[in-house]
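ok, trying the design again with the full structure, not the truncated one.
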């Protein structure tokens, strides 16, 4: 392990069935005014809203609501929420939902008292907050993003067609606490469940496919990927399998709470391609990643051959005997492709609404990262997008 890093993750987790009972103890730490943030209504249908609001009432909180946070939350919605949180003089922002709601709430935390335009400050200039920020708590209902234990907040500007994530350096932007009850995720539709599973896998890959040194983070990543393969196959056949769903939930958290990034340069180009597709189509995040991953990995394979061989052997159990490195690496990607098909993931961006005449515009929205095995040129981005069609 050759990198230098600091590591601090202050989010307190409450995990397991009935974990929401710990909410009262956490709420006692904050003032009376709580802003409850949630999505399009799934929590009202599955009873989570009633449970959380009941606890807020018992704790004597004065609650305002920001409802209707959409998947891929928008800048316009952020402006709307800033006004509500300011008028309510919020002491705590409580997110109840998936990554979109958690991300949105973190973006709100740094924006409510921001004296500049938050899009320009945080998403174009990538600055850290210089104003008062509000504490965030999460009750997670959808698994995948890791937003429950990280300082990331992805916001989409629908006017400029840019979907940008800012991972804040200041760890006080991470949720102060997160409630993770796997039972809360059992009402997810299959499409969302598998999109989340692929999001987890992609997060691990984005960190794993970088660097040449012998790094403990890579061994942790391989373990997480192997656990995910086992649990995802069980959950795909039996969505109500609590054990598999709880393993998936825990894996998601560790896949993106900064642990397996320690000592790594990290890639994140799959996410840049996926986010560009998302900015133009509003498609489900995990599916945008699934649709661009294989063409991207096949493209960079020659530049990171050693790691792709290791991936094939240690994650997919490919037997190396008598084969060239290239053949072993490709066999690993074939095994990955078979697993993706088994889950029913989207493998073509055309299925998400991208047409050939949109490719240049999607390429315009694709940010280029420098931590992976190949820094992409514009031509390479276009060619990967075309192969993903
Ligand atoms: O809005 P509601 O009605 O709640 O429905 C949601 C939404 O339609 C539904 N859902 C959530 N929990 C449910 C449920 N339906 C039934 N039962 C439940 N228990 O699922 C749909 C998708 O939810 P969403 O929050 O959008 O999904 P996800 O958790 O995948 O979040 C995606 C967002 O997170 C960002 C993505 O870019 C995207 O904007 N990401 C955040 C990251 C981070 N903070 O580090 C990293 C990721 O790479 C990702 O970019
Ligand atoms: Zn992701």
């Amino acid at each position: 392990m050759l990198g230098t890093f600091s590591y601090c993750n202050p989010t307190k987790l409450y995990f397991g069935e009935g974990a929401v009972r710990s909410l009262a103890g956490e709420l006692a730490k904050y003032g009376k005014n709580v802003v409850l943030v949630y999505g399009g209504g799934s929590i009202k249908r599955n009873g989570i809203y009633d449970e959380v609001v009941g606890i807020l009432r018992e704790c004597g909180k004065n609650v305002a609501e920001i409802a209707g946070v959409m998947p891929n939350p928008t800048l316009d919605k952020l402006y709307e929420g800033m006004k509500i949180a300011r008028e309510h003089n919020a002491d705590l922002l409580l997110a109840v939902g998936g990554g979109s709601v958690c991300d949105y709430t973190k973006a709100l935390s740094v924006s409510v008292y921001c004296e500049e335009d938050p899009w320009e400050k945080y998403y174009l200039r990538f600055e850290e907050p210089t104003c008062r920020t509000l504490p965030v708590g999460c009750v997670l209902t959808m698994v995948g993003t890791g937003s429950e234990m990280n300082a990331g907040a992805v916001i989409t500007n629908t006017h400029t067609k840019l979907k940008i994530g800012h991972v804040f350096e200041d760890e006080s932007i991470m949720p102060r606490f997160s409630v993770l009850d796997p039972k809360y995720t059992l009402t997810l539709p299959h499409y969302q469940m598998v999109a989340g599973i692929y999001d987890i896998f992609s997060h691990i890959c984005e960190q794993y496919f970088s660097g040449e040194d012998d790094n403990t983070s890579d061994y942790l990543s391989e373990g997480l990927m192997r656990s995910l393969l086992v649990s995802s196959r069980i959950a795909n056949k039996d969505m109500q399998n609590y054990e598999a769903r709880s393993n998936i939930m825990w894996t998601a958290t560790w896949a993106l709470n900064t642990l397996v990034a320690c000592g790594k340069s990290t890639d994140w180009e799959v996410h840049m391609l996926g986010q560009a597709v998302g900015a133009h189509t509003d498609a489900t995040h995990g599916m945008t990643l699934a649709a661009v991953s294989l063409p991207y990995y096949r493209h960079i394979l020659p530049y990171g051959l050693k790691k792709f061989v290791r991936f094939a052997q240690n994650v997919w159990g490919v037997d190396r005997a008598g084969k060239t490195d290239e053949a072993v690496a490709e066999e690993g990607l074939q095994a990955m492709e078979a697993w993706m098909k088994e889950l029913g993931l989207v493998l073509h961006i055309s299925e998400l609404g991208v047409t050939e005449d949109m490719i240049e515009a999607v390429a315009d929205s694709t940010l280029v990262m420098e931590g992976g095995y190949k820094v992409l040129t514009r031509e390479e981005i276009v060619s990967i997008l075309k192969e993903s069609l």
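Keeping the full-length input from now on. The radius of gyration is 20 Å.
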